[in-house]
Model the fold of this input.
Amino acid sequence: MMQKIQMQEIQIEGQKEFTSKYTIDRKLHDSLANHLLPNEWTDFCNNIDYVLLKCKPSLLKKRFTYIMMGLYFLVFVVGLTYLNASHLSKLAMVLVVIMFIMCWIMVFLFQRSIRKVVQEDLQKMCIEESKRFKSLSFRVRKRYSRSETLNITQKEASPSSSNRGSSFDLVRLSLTDRFRRSSSNERDQEQLPRGKGFYYIECRIKASDEESISIDGTPPVIATASILPPSKARTDRGLAWAPQFSLDSSPVQRLSDLERAKSFLTAKEFEQKREEIISQL
Done:
């Protein structure tokens, strides 16, 4: 029996407003509706919100530091102007530059430590949720390539070689490390943050039977402010990229499928699955 397996991507974005809370939309996605009750999904969202709230002090401290740096620079320049201390201007500018660099380094290190704590807490939460729901497997991932992430819904994935005879649907809950503001512009919603990394939660949903799994197009992007419609071009091409896999395929065919799914696996996972298939040759 043939099965269709397609990657899906759900973006959960926070807002960057000064008074806003880091939160996610509470709508339960269709792919998870059969595996999570509404109250269970609410608990999951509450756990994510609690972790993401730790990012707010980072933003507040960053803005407070920049405001204090600006005020200090303004007072310093005004003081030099009225005192007419031109002989101290060069030394003063050097001190100001050094202060700016030191403050920027402090803010950068603080934000980096906050992101690390948030990532670790999300990973712990994913492990706990995976233990609660046997059919779901959550994990925290990070991608660096903008183009690779944008093409997730257009690439194919193979069934798990370690669990032959079953398949999984893959849902990705994206957590941007810049927490950019939502936009209703279709061009904006397909662009990822310009930061160095991109964190997201990957959820593998195990199929409960051998029926064909087919997702009708690309799901909408879930944003904090509103639910954005999917790009028509991506929706029309959604199923065209969904491959078909046979449950009784040969090891050679499974190796070919594994190569096509290489971009969705870590190096360790890829090697483990490859060794399992090769051992059957």
Residues 1-20, 145-170, 174-197, 208-247 have pLDDT under 50 and may be disordered. Strands lie at 2-4, 7-12, 136-143, 168-175, 198-206, 221-222, 227-228, 244-246. The CA atoms of residues 116 and 225 lie 26 Å apart.
